């Protein structure tokens, strides 16, 4: 298979290569875009819209504060633990403009997960939503974090709306527990201080780390993927023509409204919503809580939306919502799916309801994240499409030898979007990236004669719940710490809504121990999506001759 094999399969209008070095850094993309599109809407959340020019001004204020008031230096890590609010782009781009490395942190993390990520990354600063500040107050003393900035959900709304939103969240919904974080600052105060000084343009290179994006592993220990400026800019450039192709647009033809329900702290949404849409001057309609389907649909009613970024779980939930079915979809030109496998039922239901087909992509945190994509108008349901421009793919056998078309093997990816490596984990990096730059994905795939690829199995035991990676070892480690559990195994089983759900097989010394006891134990120690949905007690678990539990055998029992 020659290097031109995939590009020869590209449909007309899709370039085989793009200039991935047209920008020096993510901040370079940002600086040019906020000038070019200064008066256009950039982000909307909670009824408030920021233009590109306003994001420019506010992020510059935040950068000035970080540089002049904190002592933080270029390359220091700042953890950002925010949902889809206006504060996210202001804080993240401000931190990058100050030369800091952003550590995207899931707001749903438990204290145990936060502590690991903060300590592993060596984060010196944290920006956190008030609803999570209680956890942060208990975790920060166990870390190297010196600066904590707290924001309330409505902080960047108009003064009246801000007061109302923050009052309701704190006093009516009771979502903000009392917290104690000595020396913490409020975001609004920080931004005000930032106006009193100028930020200095940081000397950032293409090879500098821009983001530490944490992902799990077969060991169950979350690792920080080092994504450089070049990685992120390259993936933006690779995705750009696909995005424009979907909108039937060849270039700058005015702002398009793009629905953004997926969390921006997830690299899939970050690359599309904060990078591609930044460069193309389009408008993100941020959905802070997509699990609130009535609230989500109420927001959608306000807009003619042209593109929708989602995943299987979300498509299923929305298509089953009576109010969603009443919306006007005449403006919708592009629907993108990623993060988890797209089922035929979900895709067909969405297409039949909205009149817009779903284009599925594939990627990993380690590939910034887009490795392949179904070109809009040329999608093959059930495949992960073709490699994006400037990207090569191959499949190998267990000995590392290349396999021919049509044979199943481990999918490997090579391109400018492949991460620099895992943060402070050279051995894990060497296991994942070969000396000649091929990233081993751990997924088993088949490359068809037409270049489209299919994932047929998972070499690793990772479970994907609603687009989030769940690693069995982490769950098993938690449950094994229960005093009544002798051993356990976590597997993923098919689920029509979430794609997969976690099932636990456990051996217990206590016949009175219940499934609820196990799930309650997990809820205190794991993020909600990692908590098992099913628990089955057994007298023993299948093992290899050296005693390793055979998860695959248990999983096969469930799917037989």
CATH architecture title of the domain at 51-204: 3-Layer(aba) Sandwich
What is the number of helices? 16
Global structural class:
alpha/beta
The percentage helix is 25-40%
The CATH class of the domain at 51-204, by name, is Alpha Beta
For the termini, the CA-CA separation is: 35 Å
CATH topology of the domain at 51-204: Rossmann fold
What does this structure look like?
By secondary structure, the chain is of the alpha/beta class. Among the domains are: 51-204, Rossmann fold, CATH 3.40.50.980; 391-458, Luciferase, domain 3 (Roll); 463-559, GMP Synthetase, Chain A, domain 3 (2-Layer Sandwich), CATH 3.30.300.30. It is built from 16 helices and 26 strands. β5, α5 and β6 form a beta-alpha-beta unit.
Concise account of the structure shown:
This protein is α/β, with parallel strands linked by helices and 560 residues long.
Sum up the structure in keywords.
8-stranded mixed sheet, single chain, alpha/beta, 9-stranded mixed sheet, Rossmann fold, 16 helices, Luciferase, domain 3, 26 strands, GMP Synthetase, Chain A, domain 3, 560 residues
Q: Secondary structure elements and their pairing?
A:
Elements: H1 26-36, E1 41-45, E2 48-51, H2 52-69, E3 77-81, H3 87-97, E4 101-104, H4 111-121, E5 125-129, H5 133-139, E6 147-151, H6 159-172, E7 185-186, H7 187-194, E8 209-215, E9 223-228, H8 229-246, E10 257-260, H9 267-280, E11 283-286, H10 293-300, E12 307-310, H11 312-319, E13 334-337, H12 344-354, E14 358-363, E15 370-373, E16 386-387, E17 392-396, E18 409-414, E19 421-422, H13 426-432, E20 439-447, E21 453-458, E22 463-465, E23 468-470, H14 472-480, E24 485-495, E25 499-508, H15 515-523, E26 534-537, H16 551-559
Parallel strand pairs: 1-11, 3-4, 3-5, 4-8, 5-6, 6-7, 10-11, 10-12, 12-13, 13-14, 25-26
Antiparallel strand pairs: 1-2, 8-9, 9-19, 14-15, 15-16, 17-18, 18-20, 20-21, 22-23, 24-25
Helix pairs in contact: 1-2, 1-9, 2-3, 2-7, 4-5, 8-9, 11-12
């Amino acid at each position: 298979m020659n290097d031109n094999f995939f590009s020869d399969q590209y449909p007309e209008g899709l370039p085989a290569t793009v200039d991935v070095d047209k920008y020096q850094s993510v901040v370079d993309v940002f600086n040019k875009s906020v000038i070019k599109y200064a008066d256009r809407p950039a982000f909307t959340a909670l009824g408030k819209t920021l233009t590109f020019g306003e994001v420019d001004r506010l992020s510059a204020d935040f950068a000035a504060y970080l540089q002049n008031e904190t002592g933080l230096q270029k390359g220091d890590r700042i953890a950002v633990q925010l949902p889809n609010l206006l504060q996210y782009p202001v804080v993240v781009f401000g931190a990058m403009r100050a030369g800091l490395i952003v550590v995207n942190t899931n707001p749903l993390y438990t204290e145990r997960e936060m502590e690991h990520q903060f300590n592993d990354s060596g984060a010196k600063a944290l920006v956190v939503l008030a609803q999570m500040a209680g956890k942060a107050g208990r975790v920060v003393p166990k870390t190297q974090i010196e600066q904590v900035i707290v924001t309330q959900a409505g902080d960047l709304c108009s003064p009246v709306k801000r007061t109302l939103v923050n009052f309701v969240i704190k006093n009516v919904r009771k979502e903000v527990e009392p917290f104690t974080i000595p020396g913490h600052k409020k975001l609004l105060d920080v931004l005000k201080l930032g106006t009193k000084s100028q930020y200095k343009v940081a000397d950032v290179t293409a090879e500098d780390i821009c983001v530490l994006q944490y992902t799990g592993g077969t060991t169950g220990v979350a690792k920080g993927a080092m994504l450089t400026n070049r990685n992120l800019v390259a993936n933006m450039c690779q995705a750009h023509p696909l995005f424009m192709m979907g909108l039937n647009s060849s270039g700058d033809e005015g702002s398009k409204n793009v629905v953004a329900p997926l969390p921006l702290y997830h690299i899939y949404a970050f690359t599309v919503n904060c990078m591609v849409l930044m460069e193309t001057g389009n408008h993100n309609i941020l959905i802070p809580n997509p699990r609130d389907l009535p609230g989500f649909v109420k927001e959608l009613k306000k807009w003619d939306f042209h593109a929708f970024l989602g995943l299987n779980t979300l498509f299923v939930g929305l298509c089953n919502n009576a109010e969603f079915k009443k919306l006007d979809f005449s403006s919708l030109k592009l629907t993108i799916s990623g993060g988890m496998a797209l089922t035929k039922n979900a895709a067909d239901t969405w297409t039949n309801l909205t009149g817009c087909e779903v284009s599925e992509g594939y990627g990993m945190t380690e590939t910034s994240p887009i490795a392949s994509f179904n070109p809009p108008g040329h999608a093959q349901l059930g495949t992960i499409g073709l490699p994006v421009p400037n990207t090569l793919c191959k499949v190998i056998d267990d000995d590392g030898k290349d396999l021919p078309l049509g044979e199943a093997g481990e999918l490997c990816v090579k391109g400018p979007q492949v991460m620099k490596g895992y943060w402070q984990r050279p051995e894990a990096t060497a296991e994942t990236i070969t000396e000649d730059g091929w990233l081993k994905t751990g997924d088993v795939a088949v490359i068809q004669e037409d270049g489209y690829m299919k994932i047929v199995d998972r070499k690793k035991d990772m479970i994907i719940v609603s687009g989030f990676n769940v690693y069995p070892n982490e769950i098993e480690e938690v449950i094994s710490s229960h005093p009544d559990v002798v051993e356990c195994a976590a597997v993923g089983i098919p689920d029509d809504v979430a794609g997969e759900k976690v099932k636990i097989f456990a051996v217990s010394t206590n016949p009175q121990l219940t499934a609820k006891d196990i799930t309650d134990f997990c809820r205190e120690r794991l993020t909600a999506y990692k908590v098992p949905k099913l628990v089955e007690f057994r007298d023993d678990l299948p093992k290899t001759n050296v005693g390793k539990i055979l998860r695959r055998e248990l999983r096969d029992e469930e799917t037989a």
